[in-house]
């Protein structure tokens, strides 16, 4: 049975990560606040090393290994960002890394994995295929599997983003993060309740891949029924560990459709002049939809999970998303 991470583990991860990650900035916009009816602070993990929050969990996990274990190398499977983060963490510790990614992973993420010197392995685009390929590599190479979300050290590392956010903006009442396998959302919720027990935490998920919302509602893991989504980083399913943590610390999971994701992504680029990937746009879309009353009129913090986008295949090219490119109503500056 896996160890359960606690708030103290997030504090320890913060100390361990200090020299190795960026303390990413927070951005705000009065124009965006008007559109969503809340006062929103965005934690810019799209500006993190490797372009995503995943650097936090991967580096914390790799730096937690003792020297005898680390020298055997590390192995993972990933939809892209975690693989790049683990490749970076391994490169900086001087150890080997093997990364399994599904066919169809965005080119920018594959390039990052290879740039940091990891060995790349392609598999079929299913979670089972990813897991089987990674397990086979562990058996052959004998390295340590660093799971992208079902790992206490990874969850603790991911929680440091919310810890920083609440240190810099302690008056936040609600926090939100996208959810896939649940490592980021679980870490965010643990950090939030460690800092402020009255904070309310929400997840956000594509409607096309809403297994986390369905699992949350049912109180048990549901790992089927997902369809393709433009938010390629949110296609994994929860683990027993992340589901338990989310059910203990999260108030709900909002869902948004594909047009809302694309529209939110473009609108964010227009207002903030910052690149975010579709997975990051999911909580942005949830705010813009105004379907969750708990956000309205509140001080909300959002983890922008990443900014790794294939600029040659922007989703609104040839796709007229709902709300994409619409002028703002009565903007007063940002």
Please explain how this structure is put together.
With 334 residues, the chain is an alpha/beta fold. It folds into 2 domains: 7-52 and 151-304, Rossmann fold; 54-145, Rossmann fold. It has 13 helices and 10 strands. A 6-stranded mixed β-sheet has the order 1-2-10-7-8-9, with helices on both faces. It has a 4-stranded parallel β-sheet with strand order 5-4-3-6, with helices on both faces. Helix 5 (81-93) links the parallel strand 3 and strand 4. Helix 3 packs parallel to helix 5 and helix 3 crosses helix 8 (152-168). The chain starts with 6 loop residues before the first helix and ends in a 30-residue tail after the last strand.
Strand content: 5-15%
Helix percentage range:
40-55%
What's the mean pLDDT score? 93
CATH architecture of the largest domain: 3-Layer(aba) Sandwich
Rg is 18 Å
Whole-number count of domains: 2
What is the name of the CATH class of the largest domain? Alpha Beta
- The rounded distance between the terminal residues' Cα atoms is 48 Å
Per DSSP, the total helix count is: 13
């Amino acid at each position: 049975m896996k160890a359960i991470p606690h708030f103290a583990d997030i504090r320890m991860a913060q100390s361990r990560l200090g020299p190795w990650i960026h303390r990413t900035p927070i951005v705000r916009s009065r124009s965006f606040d008007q559109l969503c009816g809340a006062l929103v602070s965005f934690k810019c993990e799209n500006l993190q090393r490797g372009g995503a929050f995943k650097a936090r969990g991967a580096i914390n996990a790799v730096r937690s290994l003792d020297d005898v274990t680390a020298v055997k190398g590390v192995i993972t499977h990933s939809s892209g960002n975690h693989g790049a983060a683990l490749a970076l963490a391994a490169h900086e510790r001087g150890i080997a890394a093997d990364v399994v990614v599904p066919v169809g992973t965005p080119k920018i993420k594959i390039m990052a994995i290879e740039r940091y010197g990891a060995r790349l392995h392609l598999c079929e685009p299913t979670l089972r295929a990813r897991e089987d390929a990674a397990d086979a590599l562990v058996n052959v190479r004998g390295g340590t599997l660093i799971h992208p979300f079902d790992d206490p050290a990874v969850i603790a590392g991911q929680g440091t983003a919310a810890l920083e956010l609440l240190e810099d903006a302690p008056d936040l009442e609600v926090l939100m993060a996208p959810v896939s396998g649940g490592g980021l959302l679980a870490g965010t919720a643990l950090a939030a309740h460690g800092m402020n027990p009255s904070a309310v935490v929400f997840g956000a998920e594509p409607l096309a891949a809403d297994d986390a919302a369905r699992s949350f509602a049912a109180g048990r893991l549901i790992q089927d029924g997902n369809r393709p989504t433009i938010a390629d980083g949110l296609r994994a399913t929860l683990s027993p560990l992340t589901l338990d943590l989310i059910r203990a610390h999260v108030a709900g999971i909002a869902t948004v459709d594909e047009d809302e994701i694309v529209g939110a992504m473009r609108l964010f680029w227009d207002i903030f002049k910052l690149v975010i990937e579709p997975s990051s746009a999911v909580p942005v879309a949830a705010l813009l939809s105004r379907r969750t009353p708990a956000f309205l009129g509140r001080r909300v913090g959002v983890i922008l999970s990443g900014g790794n986008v294939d600029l040659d295949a922007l989703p609104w090219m040839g796709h007229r998303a709902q709300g994409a490119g619409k002028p703002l109503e009565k903007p007063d500056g940002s």
